Amino acid sequence: MSWQNTPSICAARDYGKKFKKDAVIILSFDKSERYELVTWGRDRKLCDATKKVGDTVISALQEGHINCQPVQDILNPIEELF
User: Fold this and answer.
1) Total-model pTM
2) Cα–Cα distance between 68 and 49 in angstroms, integer?
3) Quick one: how far is CA 8 from the chain centroid?
4) Which one of 2, 8, 58, 60 is CB 3.0 to 4.6 Å from 38, fit for a cystine?
5) Contacts 24+ apart (CB under 8 A), 54-60
6) Are 35 and 27 in contact (CB under 8 A)?
7) CB 14 within 8 A of CB 38
8) CA–CA separation, 37 vs 27, rounded Å?
């Protein structure tokens, strides 16, 4: 495990510390249907385990094993409220 200071890793670390969590996985989407997955663990063992879970989630998304509505369909109704 190497120390990383990217904004997304810092956000996951801050979330973990603020809410007293040992491991954090953040899955985010944008309008262009791109996604990003960030993992963080309190120590090396948890970091490695959380990364494995994150890799499994990404593989499941890419292989179509997670059946989810397109992000555009989710984001558009929210935008119509404003």
Assistant:
1) 0.75
2) 25
3) 9
4) 8
5) 54/25, 57/25, 57/27
6) yes
7) no
8) 4
Instruction: Report the amino acid identity of residue 5.
Output: N
**Tokens 């801050």 correspond to what residue?**
14
Distance CA 71, CA 35 (A): 9
Residues facing residue 69 across a β-bridge: none
**Exposure b/e, 23-51, CB count within 10 A at least 16 = b:** bbbeeeeeeeeeeebbbbbbeeebbeebb
CA 21 to chain CA centroid, Å, is 15
Residue tagged 């120390």 (tokens): 3
